Each structure stands twice: as structure tokens, then as C-alpha cells.
Amino acid sequence: MEGEALWSPGPEYVARSQIARFMQWLQQHRGLHFEDYEALHRWSVDDIEAFWAALWDYFEIQSDCPPTRVLEASGMFGAQWFSGTRVNYAEHLLRYEARAAEDETAIHHLTENRPLARMSWQELGRQVRILATRLRALGIAPGDRIVSYMPNVPETTVAMLASMAVGAVWSSAAPEFGTRTVVDRLVQIEPKLIFVCDGYRFGGKDYERADEVRQIVGSLPTLRQVIWLPYLRPERSEPAVAGAMAWSEALAGPDVPRVAFRYERVDNRHPLWVMFSSGTTGLPKAITHNHVGQLVEHLKLTAFHFNLAPGGVMFFYSTTGWTMYNLLVSALLSGAAIVQYDGSPVHPGLDFLWSLAADTRATNFGASPTFVQMMEKAGLRPREHFDLSALEAVLVAGAPSTPETFQWFYDNVKQNLWVTSQSGGTEVGSAFVGASPTLPVHAGEIQCRCLGMDIQAWSEDGKPLVDEVGELVCVKPFPSMPIHFWNDPGDKRYHEAYFEHFPGVWRHGDFIKINARGGCYIYGRSDSTLNRYGVRIGAAEVYRVVEQVEEVADSLVVCCELDAGRFFMPLFLKLKPGIALSEALADKIAARLRVDCSPRHVPDRMYAVGQIPYTLTGKKMEVPVRKLLMGWAVDKAASRDAMMNPASLDWFVEFVATTSDYARPSQLKSVSR
């Protein structure tokens, strides 16, 4: 049952947790005593400057100068953190190298075409310093953009850290992305250098990417250098792009001792990376974070909400096109090791990731509710086949979790297990609501609001709700807010995305319920962004491809989060006169989306409709249609008076009443009342 108690941490587990150590430090160094997590959280959002200043000292953040001000803000929008400081994210991420035992593992790595291996902290630091020195020799200066089209392998992590180390701005696209999806993102930030690979292997099948690489490089006119990794075909070392430098050449320089290397420390507004989260119109949003904001947030997250420390091993399945890749790498801040895997999560079998977790002695394992559902249907019981004695925590992310998802882990993996769920997003590079190792686990429930995050559930008229579903809002500033969207004059798109609905308050676009004890439940997107298996897709990306298909006159796409981590993403098509929706046409559209965007952009079903509903201001009505499909009453989902073509909604009302293609999630039915 939702909210049923499943597990409680023992006194010893609580006492050795990172959050307990922080509370002891606060008492010793600040004279502050907190009885429990809720009291600590309340202080962290009531006195936000004191909280974040305490983190600065607790984690011994290295800066050329101490902060002149912890927070400068006249309101939430435009807040600036740690003015006067100069820090470098990569410097902190690699500082454990100096304390690590000889040959201590930093990265376990495996791909479908490489055997399981490991990289030590010393080797990681060595390669980062050599490559960073090469980048400087190639003319890369602080603020230059470096991008990648690379798989989830150590080379990508080395490239990422080397770029950060010299003050360059990083951005990543996964090699399964099609050319248009990559170019629409990367062209916005005018990169100077790109790391690329020749292809990848997934599910036992090879995907050559040389043609896509040439098209991408040809579409980025600001590029001055290409660095080529022969990953799929190591024997074919000749780059597919004229003038490209081979990865082996980029790393061929002499070793650079730690004491001789200079990290480029940058000011508190200097960009760290650009991550893309697609909007409903136009190009994907180029969300830009800074070094100091992500640094203090990730130190907090990995220590207090992941409970990571030296000796830990973090494994979360991800591609390089998802924010979870950045968060996986951030685990190195804690001195823990990480596991990088590139390939299918279910090849050669559904239990493959558990085998890898056992082989790497993972202490923290990440999974999605969809992955759990597949294992449950197959009757898998990992506890019977793998040594998971090192496993302490499971992080369920990528979709709203159900009580059954949590219970599955206790029944089939391990009874003494901290099963957690967290939710945040690309926009913050972290989590709003998450976990604490000091709290009990309740079925389907996210344990708490994260420290420093003043999260509330609001009604449509801006009133706080308890035990009711509302909009997820954050009412006070936090360091990992984007500093801006790239190439967004006057921060117009940034303001419209998060601060327009409730003026001066961050509205994230998720439905949330917060109960009286502080437990949280996420019920999916409240806006028109398509959240599919944790990866957010912009409707505009789909339209840009679909509406270039000759037979299509107009289209509308939505995505519904269903029970047990399932999704239903239908595409509604208005076809040109005389055209019928045949299987051949559906296959043509799916193929175009798969090639130009990615497999995630391909809808679950396609339907021909007479009209696409529009507002009086000419906007497609994705949100009302999605609400209808999710069980809202029609008068709550849409206002016909605000529609350009009110009759167009009738088809969707009938569709909801008669279709059996999907099942609406029961937990959202209360919203329609």
C-alpha cells in the first residue's frame, strides 16, 4: 500500500551516515543542534545563507578568495551565489587523487565491445592533465565551448574533466542521437572543439556513426578542431573527418605532475556546462550552470542524499545525453568510485546490470521503474543469482515510482536495503526531493525534500497544499539554478520557463504531493514537455520532423506517465486531404523520427484526427489533451472559450472514453475531482 513502512535504518547505519557527521559538525562548529532531518531541513531553508555558508566550510571548498557575499538577491530570479570566489569544479572532483591508495579504483567500465576494466584515480588524473594541457596548446581558452558526441566510456569523462579544468564550457550529446537533434542543440553554443566517436554497439548490433559525424561537423561552422575516438572499430584509426586529431595523439603528451598543473579557477558566474531540456516551442533550451553552484550542490547531494564516501561505488545506467551522466560523474566528488556502462541494459539478458553490480561491488545502484517492471514480468530474483552483499542503497529514478516498485526490491534483491527515489531535473542539475539515510522508507514515497530546497505543492491560485496534488514549486533561491539560457537576450525564455506562472517563484512543471511528515510523491509532468523514461523531449523536436513529412498537415504529441513506470506517448496527425494513415505512412514517420532525432522520439501509437486543437493565441493544446488522457474532467482540462476551434476537443474526449490502447494511472484520478 502507498505509504506503508518497508524499512528503517538501524542506529549504527544512521550514526555513520554522512548527514549525521554533518549534524555533529554543525553542533561543534556552529553551536547548532537538530533533533532530526526535518529540523535540519527547516533550518536549511529558513536561513539559507547560513546553511550554504556552512557547506562551504564543511567541504573545505578551495577558492582564490573567500566569498564576499554568500547570496545576493532582490528576489529569486537572478540570484547570485558566492560572489568574489574563484573555483574550478574539476579541481575538486579530482582532489581525492592525492589521498587515494595506489591503484585505488576511480572508474569501473564496461561496454558491449570492451571487457570489464577499471581506471585508478592516478590514471584518471594523469589523463585529464595531459589532455587539458593539449587543449591549451590547441588554443582553448576559458569560456570556449567544447562539445562531445561520445558514448558512456572513460574517454568521455576524461574529455569532460579536462575541458572543465581549463575553464572551457562543456556540453554532451549521446551518439544514438540523430544529426538534427545534435545540431539543433550544439549550434546554439558555437563550439570551438568537438570530441566524436565512430559508432557504438547496442543490443549486440553495431551502429556506425561516421556519416553522422561528418554531417554534424559540417553543420557547426565555429569548430576549429575535431578529436576522433575509434571506439566501435579500434583497428580503423584513420579519422572520418579531414584534419581530425586521433584520441591517441591528443593523449600522447608527457605526464604533467599534479603539483605542476594549474586548474583554471573562474568567477561565480562562469559557465561550467550547458545541458539541453527541450521546450514546447523553438529550439531546445540551452540551460547553463556555473562551477560554484553545481559544485556546492553536488557535494551536498552525493554526501547527504546519496550517502557516498571513499570506499563506495555508484552505478547508475545512463547515456551521455541525460543529466544522470553528469550526476554519475559528480559522485567522484565524494571519493567514491563510479561504474560506467555503455550498451543495452538488458543484453545479453534482463539480469545483466545486476551481474555488473555484483562484479563491481556496487554500494549504490540506480534503476528505473520501467526496468523493474521488466524484471518482475520475467520473474527475476537477483538475490538468488548474484553476490549483492556490498549493496546498501537503490536509487529509483526516471519516472514516478509505485509502492510495488519499492516492494520488488525488498522481495527480490535484499531486505536490508535503503530504497530511495529522487526527482529534480536537467534544469537544476540535481534533485529537489530525495532521500536521507536517517529516515525510514515508505512504499512509493520519496523520503524528503532535499536540504536547502524550499519545495512546496501549490494549487493553481498559489496556495500551499498538504496531502493534495499540486504544482511543484521552489520558493527560495538555490545555488544550482541556471545562471542563464545560452543566447537568451534579457533572459526571456528562462523567465518564461520557470517564473511566469507564479511570479518570482520557480514552477518546475511537475505534479507533487507532500504529506504531513514531509514525504513526497511525484505524479509526472504538469506541462507539455515529454518525459519518457526520465529523458525530457520537447514537442517542438517532434513537430520539426513530422511536419516536414509530405503527407502531414499538422500534429500534436503528448506523453502520459502510467503506473509501474510505463509511458504512453501518442502522436495525433492531421493529414492532408485524401491521405489516410496507413501502416506504411506510420513506418515512414517513425523512421524519420528515429534517424533525425532518436529512438525515444518515436511515439507508441499514431492516430489520424480531423483537427489539432489550438488556443485563441495560436498555441497547440498539448497540456489540455494530456490532462484529458490522464483522467481529468474535460471542464477542468480545457476552457473551450479560450480555444480557436472548440469542436476539435470532442474527438479527444471520445478517444479517452473509447480507446483501450492505454490505462490511465489511478493515482492521478484525484486530480480530476
TrEMBL record:
<dbReference type="GO" id="GO:0030729">
    <property type="term" value="F:acetoacetate-CoA ligase activity"/>
</dbReference>
<dbReference type="InterPro" id="IPR045851">
    <property type="entry name" value="AMP-bd_C_sf"/>
</dbReference>
<dbReference type="InterPro" id="IPR005914">
    <property type="entry name" value="Acac_CoA_synth"/>
</dbReference>
<dbReference type="InterPro" id="IPR032387">
    <property type="entry name" value="ACAS_N"/>
</dbReference>
<keyword id="KW-0436">Ligase</keyword>
<dbReference type="InterPro" id="IPR000873">
    <property type="entry name" value="AMP-dep_synth/lig_dom"/>
</dbReference>
<comment type="similarity">
    <text>Belongs to the ATP-dependent AMP-binding enzyme family.</text>
</comment>
<dbReference type="GO" id="GO:0005524">
    <property type="term" value="F:ATP binding"/>
</dbReference>
<feature type="domain" description="Acetyl-coenzyme A synthetase N-terminal">
    <location>
        <begin position="37"/>
        <end position="92"/>
    </location>
</feature>
<keyword id="KW-0067">ATP-binding</keyword>
<keyword id="KW-0547">Nucleotide-binding</keyword>
<dbReference type="Pfam" id="PF00501">
    <property type="entry name" value="AMP-binding"/>
</dbReference>
<dbReference type="GO" id="GO:0006629">
    <property type="term" value="P:lipid metabolic process"/>
</dbReference>
<dbReference type="InterPro" id="IPR020845">
    <property type="entry name" value="AMP-binding_CS"/>
</dbReference>
<feature type="domain" description="AMP-dependent synthetase/ligase">
    <location>
        <begin position="98"/>
        <end position="474"/>
    </location>
</feature>
<dbReference type="Pfam" id="PF16177">
    <property type="entry name" value="ACAS_N"/>
</dbReference>
<dbReference type="InterPro" id="IPR042099">
    <property type="entry name" value="ANL_N_sf"/>
</dbReference>
<protein>
    <submittedName>
        <fullName>Acetoacetyl-CoA synthase</fullName>
    </submittedName>
</protein>
